[in-house]
Amino acid sequence: MPEGIFCNKKPVETEEELTALLGDTSGTQYYKEMKELDVDSKLLWTTIQNTCKSRIRTWLEICAHCGMCADSCFLYLVNDRDPKQVPAYKIQSTLGEIVKRKGKVDNEFMRMAMETAWAKCTCCNRCGMYCPHGIDMGIMFGYLRGLLYQQGFVPWEMKIGAGMHRVYRAQMDVSEEEFVETFQWMVEEYEDDYVGLTVPVDVENADIMYTVNAREVKHYPEDLAEAAILFHAAGENWTIPSKGWELTSLAMFAGDWAACKMQVESVYEAMERLKPKRMIGTECGHAHRATVVEGPYWAGRKDGRPPVESIHYIEWLAEALREGKLKIDPSKRIKQPVTLQDSCNYVRNHGLRETAREIVSYIVEPGYFRDMSPRKEHNFCCGGGGGFNGIGLFRPQRNKGLITKRDQIIATGAELVLAPCHNCWDAIRDLEEEYEIGIKWSFLKPLVISMLELPDHMKPEE
Description:
Elements (H helix, E strand, L loop, with lengths): L14 H8 L5 H7 L6 H11 L2 H9 L11 H5 L8 H14 L6 H13 L6 H5 L6 H15 L4 H13 L7 H15 L17 E4 L2 H5 L3 H12 L4 E2 L10 H5 L2 H18 L3 E4 L3 H9 L1 H4 L10 E4 H10 L15 E3 L3 H5 L6 H9 L31 H7 L1 H10 L3 E3 L3 H14 L4 E3 L1 H7 L12
Parallel strand pairs: 1-2, 1-3, 3-4, 5-6, 6-7
Keywords: 4Fe-4S, Electron transport, Iron, Iron-sulfur, Metal-binding, Transport
Protein name: Protein DVU_0531
GO molecular function: 4 iron, 4 sulfur cluster binding; metal ion binding; oxidoreductase activity
């Protein structure tokens, strides 16, 4: 069968197509159709010839099969050190074989490659740190996902997510009007407690353009108000764009390269339209990677940078605390054992190793912070990155993958986990639900607000 009704080689382009695909509960028909989907070997090989450049080809050839990447992979560790979970084996047995066979692979092979790409790797790139040749598995698995997506072998939720970006320029069905209205509504809910609280929309030449994760609009709208409170307390000249406000990219997880470009360009267009001094993105790791680290290359920007300086939320928060724009009441600092989850995407893959720890020094009473082992860029993935959190078909594998993070947290004795990243926050929430180890978890915004010394201009009259 060359094409199914739901499982096919065509990207989702319209609301009607999204609605139909969402109506296929858990992708039941989608996965049935996938078992009959033909592989277009000619297209696959042509794509490889046009896009698989010298870097990836060299990495495939120079792998020494030394096994040094094995112990770096949490999925290898939790799966009884199965040799098929060694990162080098996973990429050589999938992408390596596709290249070796010049695209002449069958349906069964592609379904195996799909499971490997989305259920045996989160693209955290911890293995790349320990590879003696510097092979970047994250890039190679991202490339493999792109080949699989083009052929229709992509998890149901990822096909939907990429379609959301194509239709809404957001990972969820949130329109531009709904985003602005939700932000304004949440600010109104808090304006009695914080005098002068507003949300400036489409203000040109502001110092800050703030962008978010659509999950906040849909599921955690209080996060929007919390961002407004902290910007207001810090006296910042800030704004949100009515268009180009979403900086995440499920298209990156899905391997939909064209949608990646569409998504990031919508944010860059907002930067160019409003001309802020800098862009600050919310507490989300993959969003930062998609917009700030990978995005410039998808958009064809030769300098490898967004149109304006773009930083992660923890960078702004550390700066605001350091410069005294935000002041913490010492009596309200955290006085319970607390640890920190280092996000792969902005710690290991973008170098922000110390930033969150600087924030910890302000908000946690000395003696209560307990770092994980390993930590910083050596920390393990939360277990839910790279789209792993959201794929129902691979939920058993994901839940097993959470064991490494579970054990890391237990070893610290922490009761609270700071998780300044959406995927990490979700994975740790699910970890507690699955294994009941008795922890709480939190983004940074609500914690900082709970111990903030409000400036006089924000205090309500008695």
